[in-house]
Amino acid sequence: MPNAVEAERSLLAALLHDNLLFDNISDFLKPEHFFEPLHRKIFEAFLFCINKGQLANSITLWPFFVDDELIKEYGGKEYLDTLSSYIVSLDYTKDYAQQIYDRYLRRKIILVGESMVSQAYKMDINNGALSQIENAESGLFKLASTSITKENRFSDAVGLAMKNAELAFKRSDHLVGVPSGFKSIDRYLGGLHKSDLLILAARPSMGKTAFVTNIAFQSAQLGNKVLFFSLEMSSEQLALRILGHESMIPSDKIRRGAVSDKDISKLSTISKKISNLSLFIDDTPALSIAGLRTRARRLKRQESINLIIIDYLQLMSSGGNHENRVQELSTITRSLKALAKDLDVPIIALSQLSRAVEQREDKRPQLSDLRESGTIEQDADVVMFVYREAYYESRKKPAEGSEKLEAWQARMDKIYNLADIIVAKQRHGPIRNIQMGFEESFTKFYDLSV
């Protein structure tokens, strides 16, 4: 197996000679990266002393190995004492560490490859070829995600912030993020910012799927490449919705064929117009976070996607063992936030709200309604709620002939086509309520004013 035993000896010798050299490698080198078991143990003991603020040399480390059988095979205390003879130059400490880490990754790659070969030979009906490919990509991703990182100077961060500010200033819409297609939303959010996790939550029938479908379509129309994970609806159903709100023909009529020749001609023209948009729909049900991550990374590499949308969180699985669903959702949202940063794209994830909303007199959602859904509130950069008062008011219709019927009708006429997008959390700016129009028959949201 690939290894760098000589580099391991030289590194340990340098560290025991000058403990301060550890600062050069502390951000990436771990005991498990060492190939030689004894070197791994010596590095663990070294870390223990350093973390305790103590001196680490052959004298202070020896008590950890007095009864160790492994070191006896190497000559006992004499091996620790003679490590210093392996010092070549103290300037090469980081080079040694990087070589050790490189060989560790190579060994892991070999193990992933051997596992791939072994699994491919097994004709397991519950583990098909495509599933094996996803598992292999997931394994390689885990290796890649532990790669050596580097710190960014504050001056670099300030320079990047100024560059984004100048880009936003020069654009007519003053956006630095990916446009949602809704001017009222983009005005307050500044677009959908790269590496952000945005949560859109609502009770059923509020229109959250319709809202993100509108965003996906409009953003794609503006030239962006959008990946839509639809765990609830099929790609055909989503396409029907888009055809419906673009043609202003209810999608249920399109599905039932209750349309005229003129409507068919209109639909045909629209379908040809929108079919070449860079909107990718993955309607795999019960998708795991590992599977989603693999597919998102692949499409990012192949198509340079700008935006990811997930409908919805509660239909996903973490792929691991958890004590309860709350912990599993926490794992999922943390993974999605990490994915947004890794791919440098905004991710919009939909979420259901608990039934506690229905028990209150005021049905407007609050951040506390997410408390039972893991760490969604903490992990998200932006939390938005969809609320339609008309949905609840329509269920309070007084009896025919009632004195209250006229007042109820007047209220319904006022709020019928209105929807509130409540920005309850935003790292980049203030919270607020954005009122929008909503045509329920066509599942279409639209700006009222900007």
- Overall form: elongated
CATH architecture of the largest domain: 3-Layer(aba) Sandwich
Weakly predicted, low-confidence segments: none
**Helical fraction:** 40-55%
Sheet with most strands: 9 strands, mixed
**Topology pattern, helix = H, strand = E:** HHHHHHHHHEHEHHHEHEHEHEHHEEE
CATH topology term of the largest domain: Rossmann fold
Strand content: 5-15%
Q: Work out the count of structural domains.
A: 2
Number of helices: 18
Please compute the radius of gyration using only Cα atoms.
29 Å
Strand arrangement across the biggest beta sheet: 3-2-4-5-1-6-7-8-9
Number of strands: 9
Q: Give the CATH level 1 class of the largest domain.
A: Alpha Beta
> Which class best fits the helix and strand makeup?
alpha/beta
Keywords for this entry:
Rossmann fold; nine-stranded mixed β-sheet; 450 residues; 47% helix
Describe the model:
- With 450 residues, this protein is an alpha/beta fold.
- The protein folds into 2 domains: 5-145, DNAb Helicase, Chain A, CATH 1.10.860; 175-384, Rossmann fold (3-Layer(aba) Sandwich).
- It is 47% helix and 12% strand.
- The protein has 18 helices and 9 strands.
- The chain has a 9-stranded mixed sheet, sandwiched between helices.
- α15 links the parallel β4 and β5.
- The longest helix is centred in the N-terminal third of the chain and has 29 residues, at 93-121.
- The chain is elongated and about 100 Å long.
- The N and C termini lie far apart (63 Å).
- The relative contact order is 0.10.
- The model has no long low-confidence stretch (mean pLDDT 83).
- One of its GO terms (biological process) is DNA replication, synthesis of primer.
- It catalyses: ATP + H2O = ADP + phosphate + H(+).
- Homohexamer.
- One of its GO terms (molecular function) is DNA binding.
